[in-house]
Structure formats: C-alpha cells, structure tokens
Amino acid sequence: xxxxxxxxxxxxxxxxxxxxxxxxxxxxxxxxxxxxxxxxxxxxxxxxxxxxxxxxxxxxxxxxxxxxxxxxxxxxxxxxxxxxxxxxxxxxxxxxxxxxxxxxxxxxxx
Amino acid sequence: xxxxxxxxxxxxxxxxxxxxxxxxxxxxxxxxxxxxxxxxxxxxxxxxxxxxxxxxxxxxxxxxxxxxxxxxxxxxxxxxxxxxxxxxxxxxxxxxxxxxxxxxxxxxxxxxxxxxxx
Lengths: 110, 118
Description:
The complex is a heterodimer of chains A (110) and B (118).
Chain A: E1 3-7, E2 10-14, E3 19-26, E4 30-38, E5 44-49, E6 56-58, E7 61-66, E8 71-76, E9 85-93, E10 98-100, E11 104-109
Parallel strand pairs in A: 2-11
Antiparallel strand pairs in A: 1-3, 3-8, 4-5, 4-9, 6-7, 7-8, 9-10, 9-11
Chain B: E1 4-7, E2 10-13, E3 19-25, E4 32-38, E5 45-51, E6 57-58, E7 67-73, E8 76-81, E9 90-97, E10 107-109, E11 113-117
Parallel strand pairs in B: 2-11
Antiparallel strand pairs in B: 1-3, 3-8, 4-5, 4-9, 5-6, 7-8, 9-10, 9-11
C-alpha cells in the first residue's frame, strides 16, 4: 500500500524564520511528488518534482526530491503570516492517483 | 491555468436526503476526475477515480452505492451522496487531470463543497 508521511505535524514560528517541511514516501511505480498549500479551501499547487537533486524555486519557497532516500523537503525562507496554512505532500503513481500525506500545519506569528 | 469549479460550495441537508455535487472543468476537457473527502484537521482521502464514459473506480472502504459518481461528459462529473447521515458531513473536493497522461499528470482542484448533514 502506498504511504506518504509528513513531518512535523504542526509548526509554529515567527515571521522571518526559515522552515523546512519533510515528506517521505513508499510508493510503487513512482511518477512524481507534488506539494500543495491549503488555506481555507481546496489545495493550491506549489511544485511538482520528478527528478532527484533538482531544486525547484518559487520566490521564498523551494523544494527538492531525493528518489534514492524517498523523501522531499519544502523550504520556506523569511516566513510571513500569509504563509500560515496546511502544506500537503502527495505522490503520483503510475496509476495516476495521488496519495496524500497527513499535512503539516504551519502557523507564522507576527 | 486550468480552472475547475464545484457546485454548490456549501450545502446543509437533513439526514436521509440525497445531495448532488457537481464538478466541472471550465476551460479544458478532463478524461479523468477524482473525488476526495477531507474531514476536519485531516488530509485529503481519495474516494474514487472517475473516467468519462465508464464506471468509477472506488477506493477501499468507500461504498459505491452510497457515493454515486457519474462522469457523463468530458467536462462534468457528479457525486451524489445518497441517504446522507451526519457522519457524511465533510469537505468534498474534486480534481481533474489535464492533458494526455503521457504529457501531463498534474491535477487541478476545485474549490470544494462543504456538506453538513443535520
């Protein structure tokens, strides 16, 4: 059975801090790993990672995948209160389904 | 980017009634749509995969007779919660896959439907 585990479950930081969110997975027929940000409604797409070692960046957010060790990290630098959300990691297998991790709830305090 | 809409966004119903939720891809054709359920403070759980013109594939533990899925066209999938009970109260989210499977495997999510069963 495919499994995606995220850590930590919850995180509280102050504005300006840097955070690292972790996602490990066990999936048959791995195709890609995706990161999403969920605020009040449905998740919004952040990154899709398919290759090991290639960092993807978007502003203060970046992510990298390690297919040998089966994990990915999502970094957020200089955090802002608007970064407060649940961050979801999901893995896409060759069956074209997404298996989601439990999410990391991030709260950024002013 | 691709836009997916859901209707209604919020519904309250009495126990025992049926509720239909629509998921539409607005500017693309989606051969595959997915239905997820999310309970408070939990992650998204895949309920079923809906392919246009064929029967939906349900995940283990999801009752296909209770959660009826119809994918009648390339832009519309519906989820009907039959004889809803309070424990069915949840946030239901659909997503649609863009493009041929060999080209893109990205899913775009609808805004979700919050169902409350009294």
